[in-house]
Here is the input.
Amino acid sequence: MRLKKIIIIYIFLFSSLYADENNLELMEIYKNLRCLICQGQSIADSNSDFASTVKLVVQDQVKEGKSKEEIYDFLISKYGEWIVYQPALTKNNLLLWSLPYVILVLGGFVIFFIVRKNKHNRAK
Amino acid sequence: MLSNIGVILVFLILASSFLIIYNAYLDIKIKDQIVKKIIYNLSLFQITFTILSFFALIIGFINSDFSLINVYENSHTAKPLFYKIAGTWGNHEGSLLLWINILVLFSFLFLVFNFKHNKKFRLYTLIFQNILIIGFVIFLLLNSNPFSLIYPVPLEGLGLNPILQDPALAIHPPLLYIGFVGCSIYFSAAMASMFSEYKGKEFALSIKSWIQISWCFQTLGITVGSIWAYYELGWGGFWFWDPVENASLLPWFAITALMHSVMVLEKRNTLYAWVIILCLLTFILSVTGTFLVRSGILNSVHTFASDPSRGIYILLFLGMMIFTSLIIFFKKYKKESYNFNLKTRETFILVNNWFMIFFLVTVLVGTLYPIFLDVIADVKISVGPPFYNIVIIPLVVPFLFLMTVGPQFKWINSQNVKFYKTTFIFFGAVIINLFIYYFFENYSVLTNLIFIVAIFLILHCFLDAKQSIYKNKKFEYPRIISHLGFGLLVLCIGINHQYSLEVDFNLKIGENKKINNYEIYFENIKTEQNKNYQSVIGNFKLTDFKRNIVQYLDPEIRIYSDPETLTYEAAIKSKITSDFYLTMSNVSRSEYYNIKFQNKPFMIWIWISAFMIALGGFVQLMLKKNEN
Amino acid sequence: MKINISKIIIFSFVVFFLSIFWLGLKKDNNYDTKNIIGNKISNFQLPSIYNNKFISEETLKENKFTLINFFASWCAPCRAEHQYLLNLSNKNNDIKILGINFKDKKNNAIGFLNELGNPYDFVAGDTEGKASILFGIYGIPESILVNSELVIIKKIIGPINPKQYEEILQLIQ
Here is the structure.
């Protein structure tokens, strides 16, 4: 009964928005690019001249059928890695991507040993 | 005149700190349980001087006393009164004075409210807290004095950045500072605990409420900051993983972990060393955060005007804090034995801490890595939202699941806990998710999982609520409210992210644009002259063909003269189901305007659920008060 | 003994962190794209502002050195550097100057050059600004010095100042 109520509420609340695929991809790319002359804003958020120029170039390349990675690579070759918000998986960034997981695994071991030690103690 | 009063008051704060430390040190040696009256009196004087000094600065702003450099640099006679006052703490020097106010306030309140606890412990806490206060006051006097004079006295001020002239931003710093300056007191208490050997359950009880208070305000502060960013900054987002945002989030993870661990210390008298580490870590993270924000080491849209000399001082202070706490911790550390059964509440609290530390490390590494790489390899990279989303979101799935299941277990052991209802609810959540998936847009596997566990948590909280009301277990209410808020937050953010419509296009007056079932018609432009700015207002007609609704949105471009800035005010129509968001900016040397239009489902629910999280904490404080 | 090792490790970490922060304070925050030095410029084709002909990278291969300068009639700092461009074009035959007129109208550009003098051997128009991205430009004025193999040997951000002018002269010896 509760389930039914919830379902009805959901249907009522949601509007069916079938977003345009192309537009979604554009916005995703804009959000991953950094505005070089702004203080920490993406191309999507910035109102600067540079941002509007980059948007034009990205639109052209998307129309040409270039993939996201190709567009990022192109801009990185011109402006350096700083322009992309997602750090690449390179030797330089290895520590960045792996450290959180290393800590996760270490933490898991810590908990495992704490609880296991107790089982051991109780078994005695 | 005001400057002299202000500086004298600050020196008086410094003097009272030294006197308090001296007297407390003497009183520790006296082996009774009564704290000498002089210490109370000195503390009372100290808090009085501190509040008065803050008022002195506020008066300076209200009167537009430009003989004070701080007022000159950050205010203007044309500013509305409310923002003149808020300008007091909207700058580096003033906010530093606010830090000191909260340090002193918490010092005083901790002394007074903890009268039931061990005297040596209370006095050591006072000593350490006052050492912190001295550190900050010296910083203020030497480097960032809000009462510095300027001569000749300018006739007009430079004004406050217009983006900061907003009610949400006016209360954001005080709320946030009660959060991460408030954690200074349990940093000091942790040091005191090690010195006075006041451990275990009593220690837990002495700091519990303070952890709770700082957690509540930190949550509120972050939420209000996000609300401000959404309504004011004109990009339609509320969280950007910007270094300054991360600086406020790092202590939040630590305080949340600590809040849960201190329960274990209280109930089971174990995890003492870990609680101490967390107490120390939290304030260390706060000061690190302040260092990142104020030193200019990072590039961010939020930074205060930066000055490297500040950075050097804060770094020295941070270094001293870290080394001192480490040395004392290693000296006093005694190995503990742990008595954890697998299926217990305390084990699941350990799991919570595990995830909190993971999230903390992720955000810390993401924020600091560019600095490290730049210094070591002279390579500049950017770490932004994609990194944090990729690393954190997958782990939120098991986290929410464990967060739902964990509280079902009892302390010490859970022989009789049955999981029939839990399993039933889980399948209910799966079914609801399938409905959403088929009725509305399809989405990724990860999003499926997120929705499932979030709905699972929400539904189970309703079940828990029903059971705890029925059994009159009032102590469960805070947990249920906060966890429900958290589940709702994740669900709403997920829905918002999945179903948002965002488009970016250029339009001339008289043109229109069709997007899905919407049409946006650019009617005209109006200009207006306001008190301290000129505005260019666009009139847009939004037609929703599906629901046959017509709305008008009027975004603004504001041109301020003092200081000369341009801001973009979004037109936002917030409804229960979704928000419409429209910003307009002019394209240079063109008749075209760049328009960003967004439809964002459930935005209001995101704020409501965030407030709900904080609400749980406040309910906890109220329950404890009634208990006393 | 075990505890001592972990103590040493932890202390070393803390010292390491704090040193990085200290060094980080001294580093410059502003990002510039000096990394493109050493890269080849990409192929391009832009219309001349004077006639219907096109200017491409082929034109540049014929020169020993080319200074590619991005400018616009509405750009105030561009006026400040104009003197140095004129000096370069008059004094030296080894270097040619390609002006790329950024987000501007042809007539305004021609008027600008008539008023201040024309240092450019070629002037191309980039009305939408898209070509600037090809060259790794993010603001104006900006200049790139390339050799006959089209390799970038210097990048100047902002108006050319005396020091940079001397450096260009050195490089084209």
